[in-house]
Amino acid sequence: MNGVVLVLNQDYEPLNVTNLPRAFRLVFGxxxxxxxxxxxxxxxxxxxxxxxxxxxxxxxVHRPRPRVKLTRREVFARDRxxxxxxxxxxxxxxxxxxxPRHRGGSHTWDNLVAACKPCNHRKGGKTPEExxxxxxxxxxxxRSDLYSLFTPYLADExxxxxxxxxxxxxx
Length: 171
Ligand SMILES: [Zn+2]
Prior knowledge:
Largest sheet: 4 strands, mixed
Bound molecules: zinc ion
Number of helices: 5
Strand content: 15-25%
Helix content: 10-25%
Radius of gyration: 23 Å
Shape: elongated
Number of strands: 6
Distance between the termini: 35 Å
Number of domains: 2
């Protein structure tokens, strides 16, 4: 049994992706209903089952907002590959701690920005005030794009039916 199954919350919001054995357990345990089948038929000694492709939970589960992992790449993406001090778009950006680490600055979304090498060098171990530089905008924790978790699966044509559910209500 291979293949993956899209799990929707009770309100049809895409929740996660699971494997067939887990999906069958949810369905047979009356915890989920099948909305779409894929073309696979699973045969056991006595029965055969059509494999689900999309299932929907019978009860709504509360899901905490997925968070974006704090990495260099994600900070650069949030800052649109633009130095947050001079506005230059550069492909050799560095990660700058706004309040330097040795001054107690944290390694967090709101203390990290993309900075070009000259700006990072000029700022050195100083605060923006001391270095007389200003940020283009206050840094923030980006929202995770829920749909980017699912779209890679659409490359597999067996998951074609997912499209009807992934883009519901999305503008
Ligand atoms: Zn710069």
